[in-house]
Write a structure and sequence with these properties.
This protein has two domains: 639 residues, Maltoporin, Chain A, CATH 2.40.170.20; 62 residues, no CATH class. Helices cover 9% and strands 55% of the residues. It is globular and about 85 Å long. 41% of the residues are buried. Keywords: Cell outer membrane, Membrane, TonB box, Transmembrane, Transmembrane beta strand, Transport.
């Protein structure tokens, strides 16, 4: 048989017909070979050969992860065509095809099927994900809308992080990394097995000092200190049943500046306010999955997960006492623009209702009483404030997969999710919502070289007035099982998050010294309450593509040509004074992408990616971080004697008007001593530009960074 192992990807009868056809067709001799084709899981929840997938998938396998020398998951995602990685303030954001950097909230991110997309503020905390690179088996990135398979928020793509099974990582491994910019990382793992089961425990830490300074020369404080703990286990219950479970915990601390600046001129004394602050992040996650292979043509799984996020950000700040005026707060609630003009002494005379004029007169009286004409400063007060948030998610999912016939497969999913968020600052209390989903996907081979695929997701969200139904239709033509041409039409949605739908953003300050208007606790005048009258963002996508595996040449190639439009787009800055979300904006994308993976020999691997994006955005913020050209070129080589190297060149134009260009180098040497393996590796990143990876404000003192790692495996 020229294609062993394909029975998992193609119906048995059609596999036989296809191979018979190929054996008699000399035109396809180039495609014939013996290696097994890989399978991917993320596109439709069915195991499929890449040529049969209704879309483009990039797979970052374990070999590539290790050879890259990367310390962070986001650095690996730079190897995905069209993926943009930027820094917004101290947060790393990842967008497929760019868009507003502060709103990287249109891509679903999964760890072993568990969504890590935060429910309240709709963010992915890339720096704090509860998974170590050493525990990852591969990362599958579906490039394109996939609400059909994973629900709202998979508007532009899906990143599926698949960890190693415990039985595949037995024994003990310890590594330590030290390098420039305060890099100090550690990792320890131990795994063991018993009859029918296995368990792996791992702990890791990550520490560095981040950017060195801002463009104005001041120090940039974004140090990170992160610890992770993971426990993963499997147990066979019977020949056809198994359990898999995971526990994960992270505890991280991120340095930042006090982002509040006095609104009016005040005379601050040293030590009155916290110049630097610390954000504390804690993640807790637990999941349990039961798999049951009822028979060779029918399988079922049930997965449940519980997650909790804590973001603790507290600091002491100061401002003019008069800005805690109850009259000013009330006036701001009614008319923010007029209030800001009033504070700036630029309010028009005779403006507003009689009540507003009375409030304005009372405020001016308070201003006059608190102003010192000698120092030309206002009396001020200092107090403790916070932007703490706690979010949680319970998820329960049932998936049923059925081979109805040799040429027909069906998968159905029923999902329930409960999201909750609590924050005094963002919500003045708590918010919650219930989500119900029903998904179905049909894969039909009307002919051994043609696949018709249709899927749809129905979704109910208790915070929205309307439910959503998102379809996908695809036709794949496979001249051989290793080569496929596809045409795909998809609709997808993104649900506005809790902040966009129900924010009640206020600043409550405690321990005021001196007291403001006779109170030790009071509200600052700024506040924002949104009306929640938003629709879902919607995308319509059309795609033509090709995926081929030239076995004789060792070449795997994927090409994607697409045209997409996002309408009802919500673009805004998530700041208390600017939180005005609307559905007024649009983005139109069209372009093409290519990804090539070539193994010209047993010791070499070359990988090329390129993306060309043409963007028409109605709001300028959405075009700042969308480069027209971007790509990467990687070369992995095994030199023998357990010596491996990796080299990657990265480039993207016009990220916030600046070029991004970098060269990454890594080398790893292993020594095998009986049952022990020693390893030593080094990584070097050389910047060929002066881009702060997003904004123009962030810079490094040196254009390069390096780190060394040493480890032992038992």
């Amino acid at each position: 048989m020229p294609f062993p192992g394909l029975a998992k990807s193609l119906p048995p009868l059609l596999l036989g017909l296809t191979l018979t056809s190929l054996d008699s067709a000399n035109a396809f001799e180039l495609f014939l070979g013996t290696p097994e084709l890989p399978e991917v899981l993320t596109a439709t929840r069915l195991k499929q050969a890449p040529a049969a997938v209704p879309g483009s998938i990039s797979v970052l396998d374990r070999e590539l992860i290790q050879a890259s020398g990367a310390r962070e998951l986001t650095e690996l995602l730079r190897l995905v065509p069209g993926m943009i990685v930027v820094t917004d303030d101290i947060k790393v954001q990842v967008n497929y095809h760019g868009g507003h950097a502060a709103q990287a909230r249109r891509m679903q991110v999964l760890i072993d099927g568990r969504s890590v997309y935060r429910p309240g503020l709709a963010e992915v905390d890339w720096k704090d994900l509860p998974v170590s690179l050493e525990d990852i088996e591969r990362i599958e990135v579906f490039r394109g809308p996939n609400t059909v398979s994973y629900g709202a928020n998979a508007l532009t793509g899906v990143v599926n992080i698949i960890t190693r099974r415990p039985e595949e990582s037995l024994g003990t491994r310890v590594t330590y990394t030290h390098g420039q910019r305060g890099i100090r990382d550690g990792y320890a793992r131990h795994g063991f097995a018993w009859d029918g089961g296995a368990l792996r425990a791992s702990v890791s830490s990550r520490e560095d000092t981040g950017f060195d300074h801002r463009s104005n020369g001041s120090d940039f404080h974004d140090d990170i200190d992160l610890q992770r703990f993971n426990l993963s286990g499997t147990q066979m219950l019977a020949d056809n049943q198994s359990l898999a479970w995971q526990l994960a915990f992270t505890d991280g601390r991120h340095d930042d500046r006090n982002h509040h600046r006095p609104t009016l001129d005040v005379d601050l004394q040293p030590g009155e306010r916290d110049e630097f602050t610390e954000r504390i992040s804690r993640n807790y996650a637990a999941s349990l999955r039961w798999d049951w292979d009822i028979n060779p043509n029918h399988s079922l799984y049930i997965q449940s997960s519980l997650q909790h996020w804590e973001r603790i950000w507290e600091w002491r700040s100061c401002d003019a006492t008069v800005l805690f005026s109850p009259e000013l707060r009330r006036l701001y609630r009614e008319d923010p623009a007029y209030t800001m003009a009033l504070i700036g002494n630029n309010a028009p005379l005779g403006y507003g209702t009689a009540e507003q004029q009375a409030l304005g007169t009372a405020f001016y009286t308070q201003v006059a009483a608190s102003y010192d004409p000698v120092t030309k400063r206002f009396a001020h007060t200092c107090g403790d404030l916070n932007e703490n948030a706690r979010e949680s998610r319970f998820d329960l999912e049932v998936q049923d997969t059925l081979n109805i016939a040799d040429n027909l497969r069906l998968v159905g999913v029923l999902n329930y999710r409960r999201d909750e968020a609590t924050s005094e600052a963002y919500f003045s209390g708590s918010r919650h919502k219930d989500i119900g989903r029903l998904y179905g996907q049909v894969e039909w081979y009307p002919h051994h070289q043609w696949i018709l695929q249709a899927g749809a997701m129905y979704e109910y969200d208790s915070m929205l007035a309307d439910d959503s139904l998102t379809p996908r239709l695809a036709v794949n033509y496979l001249p051989t099982p290793a080569h496929g041409f596809r045409a795909v039409y998809t609709q997808a949605v993104r649900t506005p998050d809790m902040l966009e739908l129900s924010a009640d953003w206020q600043v409550y300050v405690r321990n005021l010294e001196p007291a403001a208007f006779g109170q030790r606790e009071a509200y600052f005048f700024l506040s924002n309450r949104v009306d929640g009258n938003l629709r879902q963002e919607r995308i319509e996508s059309r795609e033509l593509g090709y995926n081929g595996h030239f076995m004789e040449w060792g070449l795997h190639l994927d090409v994607r040509i697409y045209k997409e439009k996002i309408h009802d787009l919500i673009t805004y800055w998530a700041k208390i004074a600017d939180l005005i979300p609307t559905n007024r904006n649009t983005m139109d994308f069209h372009g093409w992408e290519i990804e090539a993976n070539w193994k010209p020999g047993p010791h070499d691997r070359l990988r090329l990616t390129y993306s060309r994006i043409e963007l028409d955005a109605s709001h300028e913020w959405d075009s700042w971080y969308t480069p027209r050209h971007s790509g990467s070129l990687s070369w992995l080589h095994e030199w023998g004697n357990q010596l491996d190297t990796g080299a990657t060149y990265l480039k993207a134009d016009a990220i916030n008007g600046q070029m991004f260009e970098r060269l990454d180098l890594s080398v790893t040497k292993r020594w095998r001593l009986s049952d022990t393996t020693l390893l030593l590796s080094g990584s070097w990143q050389q910047r060929l530009d002066n881009n702060g990876l997003a904004g123009r404000a962030y810079q490094y003192d040196e254009p390069h960074v390096y780190w060394l790692s040493a480890g032992v495996e038992l």
